[in-house]
């Protein structure tokens, strides 16, 4: 008899002593074996990063704790039904129900574990809220997976089928067991089993039950996610998405008046309402075009320390305001949209593009400019409903949407829609048409070619590397499309009346061993067009500074609620600040004469301090500085303020 058969028999001999609760003991044993094996495999794969933390044993032991929590959570619903279904009269129904429940649970757990390496490759973390959010868009996501990840799809499906078959064989002895407990025994023992299960799920005697923050035992977010299992990570992400209103209070509380005082806001109807006096006085304000580039971080720009795949951006940067130390506010496109079009600071909640209270009467550049007679337009190569963009834009000032169905005979169509070439050709056509009407316009064009599986037309660029479908090649193609667009734009009538912004939404695959990988939030930003003078802005800047700066360069004098700075009205080397939301961590970085001070706010943990070196692009943990408390309070106030503005619906234009 094989070792596996002996083990199988031993498990069921042990489990059978627990009568109707036998399947849960069997599931617990099998689940711990499988989930631990998966974790060990992931640890071996990422051993360098795990070893650097010096906490290998703790990672594995805490992992077992998480697995017990997960498996007991799975058992909870059947256990609640046990006093009724596990009785002798209904025992056959109980057997079939628990058999199906356990087989399905084990199959789903393994399905998620097998999906994990591909997800870590893309996002440097176990399946989390991104995994859950993408379930809303099956057409786009399945198309992307089918075109670029066929091997992974078949591996996951084959593993799931094999697991279902193996789980069926494993659970088969349960179906032939006879009821061995009396109803009275079940009703007496059940409360004890239920209490033990509930305690195991809580897994703590402290004020709070166990949660992912408790298992954040290193400074490396990816390694922390290895402590979890993917089922637990997805369940907790789903729970968090249902409780988005909690938001920033995970970092601590602060009186409302203190938040307003520390951020310079006022206790008025719109606390952050500001009157912008533009740095450029104009009789007729300029038009505005924002080209938001998918995942085009500083890692792809040679002059910012990246690989040399953006020659056109390098050329164009000599013609406008080039930001050398610009930082994204987050790691998702909707976070970049929120920052660039609304000037809204990040919180641990989802982007306001997707939240319910910001779907109407929420400030955006379009909302402001529409009231001033501008034609406001969003141009995208895919389907505009993705990530709730259409709803957010149409509810907040954008009066025209161009999406995939509006392109006639596109040059190339990928998983995510038409190519950047098609997008910018359409943008050029639209700008020519708008200019002919004589009416001012604001156009937001959002690219998508630099997105896995990195598809773009042949014959446009000399590939940077082989094979073709890599991020470096996709960025080089995106840069080609930008170059071709600006060749036409600079020869067009609308050029002299329009200010352009080229900026990334975020970097690609934001990851790192630090609490917040600051170097991966570094993005390129360039403002050019009209009479914009060439300038190198060397101070630190955030994405939320860009919309305020654009309005000022356009010559717009207006009231707005944005908290960003007008960078066109300060010296190019002025000391700045940046804010970065990285999973559940909030990074606040301030530029000082003695270096860049960073404080990281964490859920249910004390703030961490570090210093960021822009030359080496290294974040080094440091002892709290003399002004640590002041810095921590300022960071907390600035993450609580947008939460307050959103929940009270005070981030809007005056009536």
How would you explain this protein's 3D organization?
By secondary structure, the protein is α/β, with parallel strands linked by helices. The protein folds into 2 domains: 235 residues, no CATH class; 282 residues, Alkaline Phosphatase, subunit A (3-Layer(aba) Sandwich), CATH 3.40.720. 45% of the residues lie in helices and 15% in strands. It is built from 20 helices and 18 strands. The strands form 4 sheets. Strands 2, 3, 4, 5, 8, 9, 10, 11 and 12 form a 9-stranded mixed beta sheet that branches. A hairpin with a 2-residue loop joins strand 6 and strand 7. Helix 4 packs antiparallel against helix 5, helix 4 crosses helix 10 and helix 12 packs across helix 20. The chain is globular.
Q: Tally the structural domains.
A: 2
What is the residue-averaged pLDDT?
92
pLDDT < 50 runs, ≥5 residues: none
**Secondary-structure content class:** alpha/beta
């Amino acid at each position: 008899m094989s070792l596996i058969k002996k083990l199988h028999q031993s498990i069921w001999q042990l489990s059978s002593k627990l009568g109707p609760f036998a399947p849960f003991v069997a599931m617990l044993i099998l689940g711990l074996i499988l989930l631990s094996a998966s974790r060990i495999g992931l640890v071996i794969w990422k051993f360098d990063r795990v070893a650097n933390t010096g906490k290998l044993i703790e990672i594995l032991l805490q992992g077992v704790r998480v697995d017990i929590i997960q498996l007991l959570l799975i058992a909870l619903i059947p256990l609640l039904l046990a006093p009724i279904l596990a009785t002798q009269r209904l025992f056959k129904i109980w057997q079939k129900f628990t058999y199906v429940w356990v087989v399905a649970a084990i199959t789903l757990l393994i399905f998620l574990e097998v999906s994990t390496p591909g997800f870590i490759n893309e996002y440097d973390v176990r399946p989390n809220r991104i995994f859950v959010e993408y379930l809303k868009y099956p057409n786009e996501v399945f198309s992307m997976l089918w075109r670029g990840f066929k091997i992974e799809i078949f591996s996951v499906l084959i593993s799931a089928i094999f697991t279902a078959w193996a789980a069926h064989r494993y659970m088969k002895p349960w179906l032939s067991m006879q009821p061995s407990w009396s109803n009275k025994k079940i009703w007496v023992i059940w409360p004890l089993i239920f209490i033990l299960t509930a305690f195991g799920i809580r897994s703590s005697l402290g004020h709070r039950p166990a949660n992912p923050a408790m298992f954040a035992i290193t400074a490396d977010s990816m390694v922390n996610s290895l402590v979890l299992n993917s089922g637990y990570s997805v369940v907790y992400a789903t729970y968090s998405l249902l409780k988005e209103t909690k938001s920033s209070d995970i970092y601590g509380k602060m009186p409302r008046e203190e938040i307003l005082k520390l951020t310079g806001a006022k206790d008025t109807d719109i606390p952050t309402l500001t009157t912008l006096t533009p740095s450029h006085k104009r009789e007729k304000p300029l038009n505005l075009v924002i080209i938001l580039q998918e995942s085009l971080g500083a890692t792809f720009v040679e002059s910012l320390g990246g690989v040399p795949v953006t020659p056109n951006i390098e050329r164009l940067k000599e013609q406008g305001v080039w930001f050398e130390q610009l930082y994204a506010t987050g790691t998702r496109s909707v976070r970049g949209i929120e920052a660039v079009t609304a000037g809204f600071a990040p919180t641990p909640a989802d982007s306001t593009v997707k939240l319910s209270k910001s779907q109407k009467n929420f400030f955006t550049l379009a909302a402001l400019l529409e009231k001033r007679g501008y034609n406001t337009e969003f141009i995208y190569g895919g389907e505009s409903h993705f990530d709730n963009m259409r709803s957010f834009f149409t509810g907040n000032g954008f009066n025209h949407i161009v999406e995939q169905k509006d392109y006639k005979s596109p040059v190339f169509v990928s998983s995510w829609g038409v190519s950047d070439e098609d997008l910018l050709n359409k943008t050029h056509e639209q700008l020519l048409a708008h200019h002919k009407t004589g009416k001012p316009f604001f156009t937001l064009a959002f690219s998508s070619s630099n997105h896995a599986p990195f598809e773009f037309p042949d014959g446009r660029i000399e590939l940077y590397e082989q094979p073709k479908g890599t991020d470096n090649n996709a960025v080089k193609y995106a840069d080609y499309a930008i170059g071709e667009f600006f060749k036409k734009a600079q020869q067009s009538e609308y050029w002299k009346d329009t200010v352009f912004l080229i900026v990334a939404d975020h970097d690609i695959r934001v990851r790192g061993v630090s609490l917040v990988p600051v170097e991966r939030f570094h993005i390129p930003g360039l403002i050019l067009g009209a009479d914009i003078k060439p300038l190198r802005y060397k101070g630190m800047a955030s994405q939320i500074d860009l919309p305020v700066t654009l309005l000022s360069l356009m010559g717009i004098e207006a009231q707005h609620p944005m908290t960003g700075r007008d960078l066109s009205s300060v010296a190019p080397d002025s000391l700045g600040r940046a804010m970065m939301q990285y999973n559940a961590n909030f990074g606040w970085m301030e530029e000082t004469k003695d270096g860049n001070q960073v404080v990281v706010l964490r859920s249910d943990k004390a703030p961490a301090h570090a210093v960021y070196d822009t030359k080496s692009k290294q974040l080094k943990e440091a002892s709290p500085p003399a002004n640590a408390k002041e810095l921590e309070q300022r960071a907390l106030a600035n993450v609580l303020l947008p939460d307050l503005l959103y929940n009270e619906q005070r981030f809007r234009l005056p009536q």
